[in-house]
Protein 1
Amino acid sequence: MTEEVKVFRAWGSPFSYRVELALRLKGVAYEYIEEDLSNKSTLLLEYNPVHKKVPVLLHHGKPIAESLVILEYIEETWQENPILPKDPHERAVARFWSRFLDDKCSLALWMSCWTEGETQQNFMEQAKECLHLLEEELKGKKFFGGDSIGMVDIAASFIAHWLGVLEEMAGISLLDEEKYPNLCKWTEEFLKSDAVMECLPKRANLLASFQARKQAISATTASV
Amino acid sequence: MADQPKEVKLYGHGFSGYCTMVHSALKLKGVAYEYVEEDLQNKSEALLRLNPVYKKVPVLVVDGEPIAESLVILQYIDDVWKNPPLLPEDPYQRAKVRFWADYVYQKLVPPVYRIRTSEGDARKKAEEEFIANLITLEDGIREELWSAGGSFINGEKPGLLDVIMGSCHTGFKYLEDVAGVKLVEKDRTPLLCSCMEAFVELDVVKGP
């Protein structure tokens, strides 16, 4: 019954990746629909008219948008391999860090790699603060979720894979092994998971895509 | 309910809509709690220790364990104290409620902030953005969640979106005074207006 579950995704998007990972961790078969973000399909715009973004999960023909909202839905609908703890306080902590990753962390990390000069320095400071907080949160744990991959780990997959590629493209270093040994160990453990590796975009492709984008930006600013 | 927490403390500030949300949720659920008013210009050591990441209110402390971020707190309250439920039972409906709750934070809060802190053209743009996004919220709720027959977005009883929007009602009125412009109007967003009004009129919410 794979037609029941569909994911509108973009191959390089860490957000649609979250959804695919959660489904794979729970052994849910799904079909994916690849979106060209520079030319979004009518269907995507119909299913997510508010934000017009990926990911969108379609279950029994009903659409859900926003990756963290989708993760909660997946957790409530398929009970195998829970990604949220049962205890209400621990659930709140997981939700807190998932939102932290989206509200504060991702932006600082992303912008550190796309800006220059003083702006970049400011973003890098913010990024390092965020990494430090995550490092502390991981202390003594294999995953943010404890012994197994949970919602926070899924939300943090950007750090495990995309960040390294962005650092290379930008020629900077953020995830320093000396400063963040827990996070680096976490990355290793995270990338050992079959479910994680199965749908991760190829590093070389991501790098090529980021480098092309960087060149396009330089070309635009050079011609001004 | 075997393990009912005993000590509930809310660190907040009178002018914070986020804090009002938490007050409202606790009151709706009939939870007894202690309230600590923070001086935001001179934050207490307790607050900084309990919310080291953001250093903000509200923070809910339950049996000594702190939780920060209003949307996280509201869901926690709903997880612990089951009645009345703030979220529907059906997972798809729950996803819709979460989507629109997230929308408020993503699309209404930033223009509110800009209305308060900017002037001239920038403020006008922020006002237009707020109004447009409020209309999107109205349309979305009407289409996806609301069914005729209840006074609240959630139906006969208030739910998460009622707590969120209802608690912002005073803040919106204050903002209209600051901006000198009507932001929330019955003509544009009749459903949200009537639901917010119904919420602020609830005895349990008005009370101490």
Protein 2
Amino acid sequence: MSEKYMWVTCRTRMKRKCQNYESRLPDNTAVKQQQLPAFRLQLTASEILSGFFAIGLFCLGMGIILLLSAKSIKEVEINYTEKCATCAKLREEATNFDKECNCSISFYLPQKMEGNVYLYYKLYGFYQNLYRYILSRSNIQLVGADVKDVRNCAPFRTSDNGLPIAPCGAIANSMFNDTIVLWYNFNSSTHIRVPMVRTETAWWTDKYVKFQNPAFQNLSSAFAGTAKPPNWPKPVYELDENDPGNNGFINDDFIVWMRTAAFPNFKKLYRRLHRIGNFTEGLPAGSYSFIINYNFPVSRFQGQKAVVLSTLTWSGGSSLFLALTYVEP
Amino acid sequence: MFRRSLNRFCAGEEKRVGTRTVFVGNHPVSETEAYIAQKFCDNRIISSKYTLWNFLPKNLFEQFRRIANFYFLIIFLIQVTVDTPTSPITSGLPLFFVITVTAIKQGYEDWLRHRADNEVNKSTVYIIENAKRVKKESEKIKVGDIVEVQADETFPCDLILLSSCTVDGTCYVTTASLDGESNCKTHYAVRDTIELRTVESIDNLRAAIECEQPQPDLYKFVGRINIYSNSIEAVARSLGPENLLLKGATLKNTKKIYGVAVYTGMETKMALNYQGKSQKRSAVEKSINAFLIVYLFILLTKAAICTTLKYVWQSTPHNDEPWYNQKTQKERETWKVLKMFTDFLSFMVLFNFIIPVSMYVTVEMQKFLGSFFISWDNDFYDEEINEGALVNTSDLNEELGQNREELFLRALCLCHTVEVKPNDTVDGVTESSELTYMSSSPDEIALVKGAKKYGFTFVGVQNGYMRVENQRKEIEEYELLHTLNFDAVRRRMSVIVKTQTGDILLFCKGADSAVFPRVQNHEIDLIKVHVEHNAMEGYRTLCIAFKEIAPDDYERVNRQLIEAKMALQDREEKMEKVFDEIETDMHLIGATAVEDKLQDQAAETIEALHAAGLKVWVLTGDKMETAKSTCYACRLFQTNTELLELTTKTIEESERKEDRLHELLTEYRKKLLHEFPKSTRSLKKAWTEHQEYGLIIDGSTLSLILNSSQDSGSNNYKSIFLQICMKCTAVLCCRMAPLQKAQIVRMVKNLKGSPITLSIGDGANDVSMILESHVGIGIKGKEGRQASRNSDYAVPKFKHLKKLLLAHGHLYYVRIAHLVQYFFYKNLCFILPQFLYQFFCGFSQQPLYDAAYLTMYNICFTSLPILAYSLLEQHINIDTLTSDPRLYMKISGNAMLQLGPFLYWTFLAAFEGTVFFFGTYFLFQTTSLDENGKVYGNWTFGTIIFTILVFTVTLKLALDTRFWTWINHLVIWGSLAFYVFFSFFWGGIIWPFLKQQRMYFVFAQMLSSVSVWLTIILLIFVSLSPEMLRIVLRSVRRRSTRNPNLELPMLLSYKHIDSGYR
């Protein structure tokens, strides 16, 4: 306490000199005073509810449209795991890889499938989304930059004799290699092979940018010094010998397979209907059969295989889920 | 920290005891005495923490001592060492960013400190050596050197003033950098050295200074100078703080001075005062830590679940190693337990985003930037002192919104008007005049001004004479012989003056209780009536007495006084004893009364705080009657408040004090318990409905209650007392010593439910209380700056407390609470789909989102909107907040961070995460999302979810934002636009540095599908619907409760405060 009294302070003259008379009033700006002009959002129940109903109405409309378009979609799925039991049995042993096995499945299409028809294969219980599996690929190799770059491809980097595998990695090695051919049984004696297009099933950017063959005149020489993946019956440059634009790394089937699926049950696009002759309108109603060259083993991991024929609308496949959820609110 | 290093550097602990002897100019005082050079530390100031060499290790060590940083470091190290699904960059980059920013900030601050140190240490000073002025660097000053300081220079170390260029050996000093007081103070040289104004003469001075070892109190100094002139016996003079020039202070209006260094370098009072204040932690921070533990638990559970299920799933061989995904040789050879452990770590890393680094960055930024709004607020500007509010800490902003239970305050009273009773005498004027116009006590200014009004003008002090102009415009001169300073124990002060006629008079001024026993009895009665009457009306009263001292007596008194002043040990006790002897047998002259005018709008402020559900305690040193009337004046007590008194008056009636106390305590408790049955859960409600009680307790009774704790069953007293306190609307504690105030704060802090305390005060005696409580607020009053220097926040006026708490406090709390909840919410939303995905990918730790998204989510896509929200949001208008204090109750008790809201946010996040995942999952069950039949892979799946996620959490914030400034618009829509832009960009190029081109055109391809668009819109809508429903329900409920609200009594004074406030 006592210090107060001891420190006799300056006389007024001095005081004026000592003190700083600059005003320290804070700036009167909107930001500093928290007075920024602002829209005060006051959501009332009626506003929210009317917004709610507006969105609900929109959803209902969308849902009805989606439902109607989903109704027009025709889809046929044929699971051939059971139907080709003998082939499945054969493929359970890895040693039988060189033995051919064909399997025929007949079915009847009660209504014609109009417009573009797409052929999918579907796998059940195949985990394309395993962590190590997804990593096991070499993009440098696939983009054609260095065919011998197999760094990230473990455990399918090199063949037994030490050559780098092209295309390396678990994804490429496990490529789906059944051949599926659809026959139209016009009548009991006439069987017409349904014309299918094998290209334009992959993303455009994948086919023309992300996947590139190594630059060589001759494709087979481009892959000289590499080995085929152990599960493949033939090397990558023989995937489609008829069409150089669909051979090697830029083979559509290969690219489609390389885009790993999100779930263990997945479909992948296999062929598109070539709309000529009898099939200009789509697939006519009638009797059909699939001839399947059964190569891909699924019973080893207790999986299943199916073929799917489907038409599509502007919103894609039969998105009954989307339609229903849209109708719901 | 400082102390410790100091001790290592300089003297050991044992040297601190006792005194130090300093030889002026380092000359031995006499040839016979051997000159023993004592070792003192040099004048180098080291305030920096780091050197160039130890910066990196030391800084990193300090940063990783924080739990959060350490956690992220561990995660990062796991990512580097163990083969994990996410790249180390995803957590390393944000951590690196945080650490680097902090390190740069701290490095820069340290560099500034280095520079400031260097500036101080290398600055040139002039030292007198061998009768010459020698130029030296400041750090070379040794204890005992004579230093010359010129006008406007700062003192390089603590100096004892020897002489100045003025005749009377005074100099003016401003200590603005030390304690913030910008006015000039006068310091004196010892009388015997005043004449030494030249280099030669000062060099010839042979003297030794004995003084205490350095101690941090700026206002205390005890020393003695022994001057040996011409081999006559040494002359001893006492030295006090008025002779000491502190390092850091600046010389003003004096050309130059000579001084001798007594404390140097780290031993100066400035350096000793330089120490960090203890960290106060806010309730919000504690909640964050609690949530952190919950989320850490969730994280560990998730990782454990996934690891367990992974091994359950892998127990079937075709799942463990299907032909298409064979193990590498290394994997097969790894020991299974180790594998399990690394799997566990990998899962932890995969889910670690649930506890985001960026939250800490955002919270820090919010606090730092947000605190500017307080110091920027124009409403806190006060013209009189030309200053606005001051924020000393930014860690507690939100705590201002949390003062639930108690609020302590003192010193409502700053005199603005003065009234002096006409029975004041001429002598009374002289008496008070000595105390100057610039005294730090407002009372004294009041008295001097009052005297002037009655015709006696204090002209000033000249050569030890005080000059007073009387009513006839004649100057009367009084020689000032001694000042017997005021202290809180004596509660009085005296001066001894010699009149022009040669009479020696003693005038004494003090509290009535301090003066009455010391005057002749018969004089008391008349004045006592006046005094008590005045005290009842809320005036601060002082009594004035005088006595004539015979010349012989004066000789004796003089000798005693000088002896006491010279004493090095126990000086204060000795002085007190002498004073006590002198101030006896006086004649009462009269009494003064000073009106304590309440500060502007004090009553309204108190009323508002009351209405806000705060419990107000008044702790004051004033006497009971004064304090009581103040409480009435500021409407703390209303006319219908029943007062319970626990004072010496009520207790001393009986012989056994303790018994009486016990009796009273139990009686009061009974009364209160009867009034508030135990079932009353909400005290706040009870207050409005029941009879109000006020408690008055004084210092001595309080110590009786607190100190009786040694006896058995004494604890009882304390607990009964606290029970009573909790039930009372207002508590008034009068006659409190500063330490008792802090004691009360501590007591209340430890109450059940640990209420949050806020102290506000303006005086040096409030400092201990301010430091003790959760939030300390200082008023930048007229009584010095100690309070505001030690406070967390300082405001110019008491009335500013209202806006500080009700508006700023409320807003900060809401903002940061929302920030914290939102952060945990958005990260749970983010990581839950990732967790669910593990069930579909064979628990293989496959990340759902691309690494870039994982990294950028918290840093870029969702950080700015919440930061803007947490800085700008005003869910209720500031004006409404200040005018309706009841709103404050809504957030009391950390309401927004309790279990309920936390569970709501957590469930909302869980719901949304599930909707995102399964909504998209069902979408993927359809044949094709593309009209051309092309199929999408796992990265598209993740990107769809991520897009929905970013939009949902941002729109959720938009729904919560009530105050849309252009900044909010910019950051919310900007963040979304940036996300879209970034995704196109990230997927648009084959990035040469990436091993995997996973995201190549994924985003663009995704947007080409109509189904995906529809899904995104639908799922955002579904995710937000619970939130919208909540808004609907709330507004419906609000409408239904609106009518009863109107019936609640409105506090009368608000209307006009509002108009007067702006």
